[in-house]
Known about the structure:
The chain has helices at residues 32-39, 43-57, 101-113, 130-145, 161-168, 193-205, 222-233, 263-276, 293-301, 321-331, and strands at residues 6-8, 14-17, 20-23, 62-72, 118-123, 149-153, 172-174, 209-211, 214-216, 241-246, 281-284, 306-308, 312-313, 316-317, 334-335. By secondary structure, it is an alpha/beta fold.
Amino acid sequence: MSTEAIELGPSPARLTLGHVTVGACARHDWTIEQVRVLFELPFNDLLYAAQWVHRQHFDPNEVQISTLLSVKTGACPEDCAYCPQSIRYETGIESHELLALDAVTEAARNARDAGATRFCLGAAYRGPKPKQLEQIAAMIRAVKALGLETCATLGMLKDGQAEALADAGLDYYNHNLDASREFYPQIISTRSYDDRLDTLSKVRAAGMKVCCGGILGMGETRDNRVELLHELATLPAHPESVPVNQLIPVPGTPLEGAGGVDGLEFARTVAVARILMPRSHVRLSAGRTEFSDALQALCFAAGANSIFYGEKLLTADNPDSDADQALFSRLGLRREERDRGPGV
Ligand code: SF4
C-alpha cells in the first residue's frame, strides 16, 4: 500500500488504511485479519497512523514515568523461560525475602524526587500468601502517602486478594500475558493462559487499573505478535498500561540463546499497539538498554508514551536516569504529570 492509500475521513475522526478504518475511539472488536493488515502496512503509513491516533488522546511530547522496585527477589517456583528469578534456573541472581517497609518507603521517596509519578512493587511469587499480602498492603499505603500512584506485580491473585489490594489504595496491578495464547506454552508451563486472564478479571472486578503487555524476541513469529496484540485489544477493557518488553536473554535461562527481535519490528509492534489501544499508555519496558537513542525516538514517534525510569528493572539493567534526561532533552519530551490521563 502506498501513502496515497491513507486518506483523512470526512471529519478528522478516522483514517482509512486499505480496508481497515482507524478511529480515535477505543474499540474491542478488532479481528485478527485487521491487526495483521496494520502490521503489514508500509512503515511510514503505519507510523503516520500511529501518530495520528496518539495525538487524538495524548500530548505527543509527554511521557509517563514509572519506577519499579523488586521488593522480593528470586526463588520463584514458576518456570517462565525468560526469567532469571525462577528457582529452576541457575542464573546467579541474589535472592532476598520481602524488603522492610522503611527500605521500600525510602526507595519510593527517592523515585518521586527523581521525577517518577508511579511506583511499582514487584515480588517474585506464584501468588502472595495472606501474610505477604498484608505486608505489601502496608507498603502500598506508605507509597501512596508520598503522593505517588501505586502499582504491584505479585503473580496470580486468589479470591478476595484484589479487593484487599484495592482497599490498601493500589491503583494498578501488573500481570502480563507475555505471549500469544498459541506461543505461551513454549514459555510457561506452571500456569495457564486462562489463569492469567482470570487474575486480570479479578483486578478489574476490584476496580483497579490494569497493566498488561508482553515480551518480544522470545522466538515468536510475526503471527504470534499479531495474536498477542489482538488478545490485549479485545479484552473487555483495554489495559490502561501496555508494557512492550524486549527479551533480555539471561544466561542460565532456557531463552539465553533466543534470537531477539529486530528494532524496526519492535517499533512496528509499538505502533500497532498504539492504534489498537488508543487511550492506553504504551510503555517501553525491559530491554531498553539495548536500544539506541534513535530507536527509542522512533518508538516514541510510534506512540510509546511511558517508560520505566531508574537503573534497575527487577533484576535487569535499565538506562541510567541521566541518560534518560539527556534523551528527553534532545527530543523535547516532558514528564507527564500525575493523573494526566488520555485527553479524550
Ligand atoms: S516472571 Fe514472575 S512468575 Fe515468572 S518466574 Fe519470574 S518472578 Fe516468577
